[in-house]
Amino acid sequence: xxxxxxxxxxxxxTPFLARAARAAATDAVPAxxxxxxxxxxxxxxxxxxxxxxxxxxxxxYDQAHIPGSVYAGPGNADNGLANLKSQxxxxxxxxxLVIYCGCCPWVRCPNMGAAWDRLHALGFSNVKALMITTNxxxxxxNKGYPVARGE
Amino acid sequence: xRSRLAILLTCLPLLMGAAxxxxxxxSSVPAxxxxxxxxxxxxxAALQGKLVxxxxxxxxxxxxxxxxxxxxxxxxxxxxxxLQVVGISMDDSAQPVRDVAKRxxxxxxxxxxxxxxxxxxxxxxxxxxxxxxxRDGRILKIWTGEIAPGAVEQAVKAALR
Lengths: 151, 161
Known about the structure:
The structure holds two protein chains of two kinds. By secondary structure, chain A is α/β, with parallel strands linked by helices. Chain A is built from seven helices and five strands. Chain A has a five-stranded parallel beta sheet. Mean pLDDT of chain A is 88; it is low at 12-16 and 18-23. Chain B has a single domain, classed as Glutaredoxin, CATH 3.40.30.10. In chain B, 35% of the residues lie in helices and 21% in strands.
């Protein structure tokens, strides 16, 4: 993986980029918790759908997001994790939640792993993660799944 | 009056929250005029006649950071032959962009984008995104997601021939 080595070398130059590199561990999310876009689209049609939480970046959320989803990011920053906590702290710990981002290719996402860890630290036991392979535009919007726009 | 109507009809879908028009090779590049990180104006219309490589990136996007040295090298090599790289950061604020600029000596302008600008470019819903725009202002190629090393440079060289 020469490109992975190149990424690591470049990201280790400054503290905030090194933090992004550490947070990029989407490996933290177990395979059993992953949802594919088609699976989530079906779940959202249910009478009691899970609550989608966008843990990525505001500029992306404002352009397009999953209808009914709440902005709760970015997971790579302390203020983003505080935002995530404030969005969920009043919810029952067994509430079905789905975190998603799609800012970058899945293996490079700086938000999902950290958001996953924080929700588990807060005691949430029914959390899934939407696996977006390339980005939200390619894997959700362009596939024709429902989209809301604006803040 | 007619031009006002045309502007209204162009902007109406965005104002109503409708899906932005998706850009593809052959589309005209949207208008973009903003100040760069040093306060200097950057206007895509003024760059017509040059080959323009637009790089949508952000400080939090690891594959975008990988692209920066490549873009700097391309600007250095092909700038004298008519290439102009333009960086558009999709960071939520300017400070992280300034932090990246401390690490990399950008030799091309970088402007701060936002959701509105992203929508005008057909929706920048994930990074990186790079667009190569021909000398006539039409998009030649769009790359999204992780970009294979050498792919963009090959297209730049072909367009400069």
